[in-house]
């Protein structure tokens, strides 16, 4: 019996190991039982009618040479015991059919792009070490028998890298091209110019790089800290480097889309050539992140400059799309400029948005005259869309929907799902990021076809892109950490069929991590982090449920908020954690070896007379609903690491009435408010506590003016208010919203958010 079990385990193990696991998921896989094993007589060949695929075949030969330490030559002709790249004109442009049998491998495609993608799949069928950059003496290069038919869902599958905020070396950009191409992504959008740096040599305007590529210092920590490092930062790509990079990318079928930002995000250029601004004043290259009011002036000098710059850019980059930015251009400078006001009159433009539209139209006309197409961020819709423009929808999907309805091509890159500069795990366990919360499952869940569009309109959605803005990312390792694995999810959205299953993706992804290890990619392991959810038992006590995406490890936790280790309590879904008193639970996933996988996550609970009790609100919350219906008395205390438990009121007061169900004694009321100045979340101005027995007439028992620490960031104002001996059925808590955001705040004059959580009464 034990023997049979052992045999079963072994065969199951062998099967599990060989189950095909490819990212992005191919359209169809039929797996056989046998395998093909590379031996010293195996050849790599292209069929005689397919010599154009030789360069792709040579990429395989190079891989094999690295890991076997034996030279491989690509031959031509058919036969057994070979990996053959053959022509099949029936297959669509990027598609391929890959057949592995015990006697050999055949990758069929109609052209080298298809062969390249077939090769990327083939590399994921080999053991992960095939991707290593060193000799692997013990490696057995075996492949599972299979037939894979594949082609992409979308034609545009991109990643944007912001090299403006921080300069990234060519070696990193080449590695990024390698890694994205391995996942069948086919666009690298380089954001080459910014307020804080101009990163591309332009022969006609040498000061762009002499002056514009260097800033005197960078922000240290978060924007809200308003600190600087005092160290110059700079760097740019020469035209020779760009040409080499473009050639490198072409070999991997990656198109580099260059972005030259206009009319906003242009301070580095204006610092180099002050006549491009509206005042002619000499400025310094930007050092502060955010949206800059000093923008290009729409004068003839600027257009001449931009046309000359674009002429060189078009000469360097064969990309059909030339990205012209168009986002976040404040109109203050144009409002103050007599020249702009006169121009608007002369051109019959009713406002500054139309002036921006005039700007983009002129550039569109120029780029179109050169046989290329402009693409811009969704602000280019404001004031009227230029005739040939493609829209990159980033402020959600609305811009993309509007553009598709106007029969313009669209690339979907909504910040809700595709902004890879957002946190991918609990912020306390992550490197500093701009904000947000975008775990890999959320990116994965994105569907580019919006339900608002008809089938006909959906055809304008050409693809997807993930964006990596780098205000808080200065090093290649950190960029990789933010990009991966979310760029894998992006690849799967762009390539694979619409039907998606995150559990299946997760299983393939964790296997794929071994390949990323071989490629020396510094990916995030936040996928393994433990998620908390809370139920209530019959006694209205919170019952905590813990879960990790990965079910192969053990969840361990502590009940005092300290970091769990390999000896901490083991969680099991059958042994519920009932919270009977105030505490913080911290949890993490551990491998069998006892090593922690992923990071530590935690949640705080508070138990009191109000736990589980009903309440009403004078104004209902907006957008931030606290995760569940009775979020303010559910026992889960809002903490600074997540917006989820918090209940948010935009511009409105917190006006809360709790019903104890019967007259109840209490002496203390506690409630918390969040402060996050740069997220427009302000603490209240004051708080009042009242009681009643009939829910009609209320008596005030306490009123406090709160010293509003308005500029403080990321803090929780936890109030524990002694209210004396009371006996009442209803308790009312009113907290006054801070009101309009103050002078000096980027959102000045608009309503601030009041974030409240957990009213507990004792
Ligand atoms: C953008 O994030 N400003 C396109």
Structure summarized in a few sentences:
The protein is an alpha/beta fold and 762 residues long. The chain contains 18 helices and 36 strands.
- The outline comes out as globular
Mean pLDDT: 94
CATH superfamily of the largest domain: Glycosidases
CATH architecture of the largest domain: Alpha-Beta Barrel
Distinct helical segment count: 18
Number of domains: 4
| CATH topology group of the largest domain | TIM Barrel
Strand content: 25-35%
Query: Can you list the ligands bound to this structure?
Result: acetamide
List low-pLDDT spans.
1-17
Most strands sheet: 8 strands, parallel, barrel
Provide the gyration radius in Å.
30 Å
Strand order of the largest sheet: 8-9-16-17-18-19-20-21
Q: Which terms would index this structure?
A:
762 residues, alpha/beta, Chitobiase, domain 2, TIM Barrel, 4 domains, 7-stranded mixed sheet, 18 helices, 29% strand, globular, disordered N terminus, binds acetamide
In words, what does this structure look like?
This protein folds into four domains: about 1-150, Chitobiase/beta-hexosaminidase domain 2-like (Chitobiase, domain 2, 2-Layer Sandwich), CATH 3.30.379.10; about 160-520, Glycosidases (TIM Barrel, Alpha-Beta Barrel), CATH 3.20.20.80; about 530-600, Immunoglobulin-like; about 615-760, Jelly Rolls (Sandwich), CATH 2.60.120.1190. The protein has 18 helices and 36 strands. With about 750 residues, the protein is α/β, with parallel strands linked by helices. Acetamide binds near residues 327, 328, 377 and 394.
